[in-house]
Amino acid sequence: MITRRQLVALVALTLMWGINWPMMKFSLRELSPLYFRALTMTAGSIFLYSWYSARGLRMLPQGAEWRSVVTLGLPNILGWHTISILGVKELASGRAAILGFTMPIWTVLLGALFLGQRLTRRTVIAVFAVGVAIALLTSSEFTALTGRPLGIVWMEIAAISWAIGTLMMRRAHLTLPVETLTIWMMILSSICLWIIAFISEPWPSWQFSGPMWASLAYGALVNYGFAQTLWAGLARHLPPATSAMSVMAIPLVGTLSATVIVGEWPHWQDYLAIVFVMAAIAAVLLPPRHPKATE
């Protein structure tokens, strides 16, 4: 049974991560994507390190634990956050959120293809629903004058990277606290991002408007900071079905808040795609109802 405190935290987390999608799009008006990721992830890592260090958590990996940090960090943090921000650059933020959260479906599908996990009827329905959602968004991107279908490719590659990382996390035998693992994955990934950004993007002027600094603070402290601490606490105690409902709500929040934050007005394809993606996530994450035993 979920408590009132957990419900409030879950709603706050959903709003934080949902609003973050148009906030990222807003930030990209004044800062290139990879430098944006490098800056906000670095600041978020420092915040989280200070937060958990003050609470006495073991903060330094030892021996073979560093291997887990690197191997799990590549798809979960570096792959997902690097590729997804390229998708956000090309797409409306709401569409990027919808496509990014096809990750649970890719997780189930890849598990069935490569790890011998059973492919159920629910999975087939979910894959079909995601295919319809992608087709809806793709058709609109091809017909819009400013449409950039490459963004759809970026977001699906990012979702697949996240899905691979999720499967690896499930099979990993960790001796390191999850919070410490997450922080060090972010630290190493941010170092890589600074290097990649320096090579591929022009050096920023670092002279931003007031709203831009507020947006960067949101990305660092809210998206990478407070939201991560909330999730670390909730993930240990929430039932899977409740977590699934939260995941399904994030693209909806991102799409609706984009109208206010960046002036993006969703099309009918966006709303219909949200329905199909939410249905697909529900099919693969929510537990089936078992009929009550008769006496």
Could you characterize the architecture of this molecule?
This protein has 295 residues and is mainly alpha-helical. The chain is 77% helix and 0% strand. The longest helix has 26 residues, at 65-90. The protein is globular. The model has no long low-confidence stretch (mean pLDDT 87).
- The helix content, as a percent range, equals over 70%
Number of helices: 11
Strand content range? under 5%
Strand element count: 0
Mean pLDDT: 87
Largest sheet: none
Which structural class best describes the helix and strand composition?
mainly alpha
Shape: globular
List low-confidence stretches.
Answer: none
How many angstroms does the end-to-end distance come to?
26 Å
Give the H and E element order.
HHHHHHHHHHH
Give the C-alpha Rg: 19 Å
Concise structural overview:
With 295 residues, this protein is mainly alpha-helical. It has helices at residues 4-27, 33-54, 65-90, 93-100, 103-114, 121-143, 150-171, 178-200, 210-235, 240-261, 268-285.
Topology:
Elements: H1 4-27, H2 33-54, H3 65-90, H4 93-100, H5 103-114, H6 121-143, H7 150-171, H8 178-200, H9 210-235, H10 240-261, H11 268-285
Helix pairs in contact: 1-4, 1-9, 1-10, 2-8, 2-9, 3-4, 3-7, 3-8, 4-10, 4-11, 5-6, 5-7, 6-11, 10-11
